[in-house]
Automatic annotation (TrEMBL):
GO terms for biological process: L-arabinose metabolic process. This is non-reducing end alpha-L-arabinofuranosidase. It catalyses: Hydrolysis of terminal non-reducing alpha-L-arabinofuranoside residues in alpha-L-arabinosides. Belongs to the glycosyl hydrolase 51 family. Keywords: Glycoprotein, Hydrolase, Signal.
Amino acid sequence: KVNIHVDQPTVKLSPVLYGLFFEDINYAADGGLYAELVQNRSFEYYPVEGWAGNSRKLHPLYAWQKVERDGGQVQLDVSNESPLNENNTKYVILKLDGNGVAGIKNSGFGGIVVEKDAKYDFSVYARRSEDNDNPLKVSLQTKDGKVLASGSVPSTTSEWATYDLTLTATDSADDAELVLTTGGGGELMLDMVSLFPQDTFKGHKNGLRKDLAQALADLKPGFLRFPGGCIAHGHSLENTYRWKDTVGDVSERKPNWNLWGYHQTYGLGYFEYMQLCEDIGAEPLPVVPVGVSCGFRQPFQVVPMEDLQAWIDDALDLIEFANGSPDTKWGGLRAKMGHPEPFDLKYVCLGNEEHDTPECRERFPYFVEAIRERYPDIKIVGTSGLGPEIPLFDLMTKTDVYSTDEHYYMPPKWYLDNIHRFDNFDRSKPKVFVGEYASEGNTQFNAVAEAAYLTGVERNADIVDMTCYAPLFAKYGSTQWTKADLIWFDNKSLVKTPNYYVQQLFSTSKGDVYLDNSVEMTNRASSEQKYAGQVGIGTWRTGIEVESATLNGKPLDFEDWKVLDGDFRNTEDGNYAQLDRNLEAAVSVAPQSTDGEKAVYEVRARKTGGSEGFLLVFGYE
Ligand code: AHR
């Protein structure tokens, strides 16, 4: 029995209580949310020594292969002489032998998914030697050479210029390649070879993959924290995410390596993040580095105090980029990129999960002071440091930031044991932003543990202002963070985890206020499953007695029950089962055959003690 005292509201819930955390980990950006289909489009890849063993021997021709047909031959070289611009320093030279057909092809991020009748935007920068005036033929092909779409750039010149084509697919394939061929001799130089589906989220050019972005929109997030995570402060200072490298024309952005062991084109950059926020109704929450690189790397790197102003200016300029009028320098760039209206940035997050070091303690206050002085209305979200111990909370209190970001990746038990974590937090101190959390698994039990924790968050919503699960995305076969991620995907489809549905449930049914309530559990619990899957009973902090369990009216044998977690005992007469109190536990029964009939499980259970806790019956395939 649930008693809800509708006449007894307690605290107000923040309008931005449930949000999203995006980091380019597990190929979340390039090869993921960012809809670009060509991998290594500007030949900028190089070997990457990432954090925690995430190293890869990448190279400038990674994902590219030569094409030689009808007696044609080609040599592929990568050059940095007379590049496209100072940020995009490498390009490929096709040295053609003058015979047959030759060229280059790209296999995308493990194959390009092509859909019949869909249109694709192809673009390339090209220049040629004087002695080659052959057209550049562009096609999408299956591995065995079936042409799915084609087009042609009639001629190119000896100066870098960009060429665009629309390709329309006549058939579908899951692992197509983008093939560029030409004839004749001489040299053909190519850079920024790009292919996007026209059908991106909200139809933006340089846009996002529709299904993945829609999955974010469906969570109705109050905010989006970006770009990380560890990539925000970087594995070293050269690897720090500097937002100015990620805006402007995509061909002029300065790519960087990713500490998770691959590359970032920055095609998904600060403009695109803010545009996404606008599209899904989320407040942008950019994470700005504070002159200290990731503390997991020892020795970490630090910006000398005499150079810190440039980093502080980055933070201030970011606010101008988001909110300044088009006649300011950075507001002007935003307008030029197609968004004259401000993005209405309200929050800036300073630092990501910084380790408690004197260097961080010295630098952090300068960022707070500068932002506060120039932009007093911006809410500054600080960092409490790593883990539930929140080692930097005292510094956050001293600098009097609006709220402070705490991170923890803990087993489900921790979340269940810490439902009361915030009950005694000092209300005079900064608010709390639970900026990264997950219970180390994507099972239903993990999701329930997270849900339980969020009930404690809501009870304390006067101080817990924002929360977001992490990480958000994981690409099958390309993960660096394997224990738990909110959305799993491949090139074509996605899987929403039980944890996703918990986030969605809490976000889409969030109340305005928290009502006083209590739970009495003496009643029968039952569950009707529409499939012959497993049925289970979970409990937390209370004993339960399973009195009877039936499948389609026939008793289930208690010997079939298996313990998923916790302590489960058959009693002497075998008539019921006992889960000890003060344990989280779950038991389940193995799948039962129903000969194709609907499987209706009925479980009778009752609570045997404890003043709190809950009992649930669940089913899964
Ligand atoms: O979410 C994955 C990583 O966990 C983040 O990059 C970092 O902030 C944390 O340690």
